[in-house]
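Minimal example, chain plus 2-phosphoglycolic acid.
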Amino acid sequence: SKYIRVFFTPFLLLYYCLMKKLIIGNWKMYPVELKEARERFTQIKKTASVLRNIQTVICPPLVYAGDLKKMVTGHRVTLGAQNAWLEQEGAYTGEVSPSQIRSVGLTHVIIGHSERRALGETDEMINKKILAGIKAGLVVVLCVGERERDKDGEYLKYVASQIKMALKNVQKKELSNVVIAYEPIWAIGKNALRAASSEDALEIAILIKKTLADMYSRDGSHVPILYGGSVNEKNANEFLTASRVDGLLVGRASLDPFVFGEILRGAEKVK
Ligand code: PGA
């Protein structure tokens, strides 16, 4: 029986990893001091490290990542970056490459967040960043989402085209390194109208699945889909159940260890 255990354990682990909910905290450009970042990460880690059904990823300001990485033990809580450059090295003052991010032990990178697109990041750059991130061995979290909704459903075409452009030349075998986060711009941040409804998110989750099926047939169905935009401890579970997404991308609420802890504990219970 020992041999059976040794043989099957890797498959079981893989199975559990695939089943886990992925909850990502995007800290944006907060907090202002390293000490504060350390304290918040310690508290989040305490909650997250006992949850078996959740993979938690905190994306702090990159300058804190090396320090926080020293506090990481095990694989239930890891660190990610909020952005990366599109080449692995070179004369790009102020930029950080995916290989460099990977080399300090980060596991994920958010690509194409709407706040970066607003700073001038194009679909073509995002595509290059996705390819570079995968090549470096990171899990890339591609953000897509419409600025506003129209009655004719143009936003559906828009989101589908964002995905197609971002994943151009990404091969089937690389899809295990891809996550897609639906983040409607009208639902993000302090000035958000509101969070999307669970029906809004379900509609797009289905659209994303269909788009991936068009591009990759059945292989596309394993790509995890996240919802992001005004997620809090009250609405988190509804997205995980009613919208059937595989996880959440949380901004403001991830900076409060108590609130984020509530989101994590709630998600742990979702079947
Ligand atoms: P929010 O941000 O949760 O503060 O709306 C989400 C995001 O920008 O990823």
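Residues 198-216 form the longest helix (19 residues). Strands lie at 21-26, 54-59, 77-81, 108-111, 139-144, 178-182, 225-228, 247-250.
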